[in-house]
Amino acid sequence: MVARPDDRESDTEWRTAGDRIQTLLDSCAAGGTAAYDRAQQLVREVVGLYGAGLQRILAHADPQLAERLATDDLVASLLLVHGLHPHDVRRRVGDALDRVRPYLGSHGGDVELLEIADDTVRLAFQGSCKSCPSSAVTLEFAVEDAIRAAAPEISEIEVVAARHTDVIPAESLLAPMRSNGIAAWHPAPELADLVPGEVAGFLIAGTPVLACRVGDRSLAYRDHCPVCVDTLAGAQLHGGLLRCPRCATEFDVIQAGAGPGSHLEPLPLLTRDGVLSLALPREMLGASA
C-alpha cells in the first residue's frame, strides 16, 4: 500500500497517539479515583468498538485487501493491538528487517535473522557496521525500533556483533539505551543544518545534546564529558576528534566517541517519516549535563 503525502504527514502524529492518550488519562487522575476509572473505561469501550469493527472488515475482505491492510503501518499497529494481524511473528520480523535493509545498505551493512525463540529475537550484523561503533549504535537501534513496532510481543532482542579490539563494542554502548525500555524519538530537523566540521549544542525535549557533522554524516551525543564531568559547550572538531574545551580530552566521534579510558554517550540519529529524529533514553529526558 503506497502512502499518500497526507498519510506520511500524519505518521508522526499517530506514532505518538498512545503517549497523548496516556497523558490525558493521567490528567484525569487529578479528578479523583472515580474520574480516572471512568476515563479508563471510556478508552476501553472505544478500543473495543474499533476492534470489533476491524474484525468485521477483515472478515469481509479478500486476501489481497487483507494483505494490503497488514502492510500499512497505522492499520497494522491497530490489528496488532486487537490480535487480528494476519501474519505470524516470524513473518512480521522478517518484513521489518526487509524494510530497514536499504538503510543498512546505505551504511555498508546488513542484518541476518538468526532465531526467534521464547519471545526473543537473535540477530547478527554484517558489513562495515561491524567495525564502526558509531554506525552500529544507530543501525542497531533502527533495527530494534522496526522490530518492536512490527512485533510488540517480542520481549528481548539480542544482537550478535563482531568484536574488534581497537573499538568499543556497540553492544556495550547500546546498554544505556536499553536500560529503561525503548527510548523515545524526537524530531530534530535543526541538526540537519550543520555543515561539515561544525559542532553545535541543541536542547531536544529538555535534554542538552551535542551534534557535529563529519563529512556527510551527522552525529549526536549527550552533552556531557565523562572525564571532567562537565558540559561540552564550546568543543571543537579536529578531523574526527572532538576536543573538550575544559579538560582538552579528545574523543573520536566516528568510533562512537572513544576517548582515553572513557567514551561519550552516542545517541541514535535517523530520518523517520521524512524528518531527522533523535532517540533519547527515557531516563535522560529533561536531564541536564
Automatic annotation (TrEMBL):
Q: Which InterPro entries match?
A: FSCA_dom_sf, NIF_FeS_clus_asmbl_NifU_C, Rieske_2Fe-2S, Rieske_2Fe-2S_sf
Keyword Cell wall biogenesis/degradation on entry = no
Per the record's keyword annotation, is Isomerase included, yes or no? Answer: no
| UniProt keyword terms in alphabetical order | 2Fe-2S, Iron, Iron-sulfur, Metal-binding
Q: Which Gene3D superfamilies match?
A: Fe-S cluster assembly (FSCA), Rieske [2Fe-2S] iron-sulphur domain
- Span of domain Rieske: 186-278
| Function comment | May be involved in the formation or repair of [Fe-S] clusters present in iron-sulfur proteins.
**Protein name per UniProt:** Rieske domain-containing protein
